[in-house]
Phosphatase PAP2 family protein
Amino acid sequence: MPVITFAGTQIFWVILCSLIYLFGDHEAKEAAFMAIVALMIGFLLSELLKVMIARPRPYEVMEWIRYSGAAGGYSMPSGHTVAAFGGFLSLSFKLGRTALFIAAASLVGISRLYLGVHYPSDVAAGALIGILCSFIALRINERVKCFGLCRFEMLK
């Protein structure tokens, strides 16, 4: 599960989107752009909500949950799940394979539960926020293309 949960980290997404942008075609470059936008919005939203809600993590409240990792901060919502759903769903808009990407994002959410760092409601909220962020990124991508502010055609 620690390997799966890595797909919800910023470093995973920076590396993945960089590789996609370097070696991908036109659609892949747009997908990487949308994923980064979704991740930035998702990070800001999740961190704001964590501070506002200030919910302790399960392993801090329940003695029978043992966690040996380095999770800190508050629990609600799951930032890893926000990143996974925001990133993977954004990729699916341009690259297809939606079921595969949603399955990957869901596994990240399940890994957060398994590791004892989130409640089910944290993961559900993270998934909803990630989905919302991916749709916002899709709209931003459409607007950027519409106004000609970013010329993806030159990247072909």
User: Anything to note?
Assistant: The chain has a mean pLDDT of 87. The radius of gyration is 16 Å.
